[in-house]
What we know:
By secondary structure, the chain is α+β, with helices and mostly antiparallel strands. It contains three helices and eleven strands. A hairpin with a 5-residue loop joins strand 7 (100-105) and strand 8 (111-117).
Amino acid sequence: MRQRDRGGSRIKVGRPSIAAAAAFLFFSAALSAAQTTAVKRGITFMSSGVSIAVEKAETPEERSRGLMYRTSMGELEGMIFSFEKSGRQTFWMYHTRIPLTVIFLDDALKIVDMQNMAPCPGEDPGACPVYTSRVNARHAIEVNQGFVDKYRVKFGDYVAIGKGR
Length: 165
C-alpha cells in the first residue's frame, strides 16, 4: 500500500481485494439484468398518437436508481415514475449519462410540466442541479431530449398508460 497526503491528512490507498472486485462484478451484472428484464408498459401520447415502451420504477430503490449509468435509450423508450400521492416531485441526474426530458403528469394523466435535464458530470452529487415540478404531479415520464419536439408533445395533452407486458 502507498499513502497519499490529502489536505494534511494521510489516507491509505491500495489495490482492491478480490472480494471487492467480485462484489463489483456481481452488482454490475445484477444491475444490467434488472435493466433488461424490467416489465415494460406502453404509454401513448394522445394528441400525437405516438406510443413508447417504458420501464416502471415502482420501488423507492428503482425510483432512486432511475436511468443511472445508462449510456443510451431507444427513441421510443422511457421510464415512468408513479408516486403514492400528488406533490412537487423532484429529480436529479446524478450518474445519468443521457440528456433527458421529464414530463410531469397530474392525477388525470394530463401533462402539467416538462423540463429538460442535463447529465451531471463528475462524482459530486451536490454539484448536480435539481429539477422540481412547478406544480403538483402524480407521475413523471423520462424520455430522450428531442422527443417532445419531434412528436409535438405539449402542456395540457393527456397520456394513456397500458398494462405491463
